[in-house]
Write a structure and sequence with these properties.
Bound molecules: zinc ion
Order of helices and strands: HEHEEE
Helix content: 10-25%
Mean pLDDT: 91
Shape: globular
Number of helices: 2
Structural class: alpha+beta
Distance between the termini: 50 Å
């Protein structure tokens, strides 16, 4: 059962670098991560860390989160939308 939940969590938006959540600015990462429900208990997540990380030469924003209810930790992946230079 835990494996199924884990697989579902990874398939959800932000669950992996394959399915990053697109954001307009880094500030949105904390907002969206904070209102994403825990994949196990639907509890609320606390953002422990928010870092920039390059995976396979693509830049991502990664939020390390901990569920305030069950303590599950996971990482949520975000990608900044390409911004045009004016
Ligand atoms: Zn939880």
């Amino acid at each position: 059962m835990a494996d199924d939940l884990e697989r579902l969590a990874r398939a959800a938006p932000g669950g992996s670098t394959q399915r990053p959540i697109e954001v307009e600015s880094p500030a949105q990462v904390d907002v969206i991560a904070g209102r994403t429900p825990c994949s196990r208990c639907r509890g609320s997540l606390r953002v422990d860390e928010h870092v920039a990380r390059v995976v396979d030469e693509h830049p991502y924003r990664v939020a390390a989160v901990t569920c305030t209810m069950c303590g599950t930790t996971r990482e949520l992946f975000f990608r900044l939308k390409a911004s045009r230079l004016h």
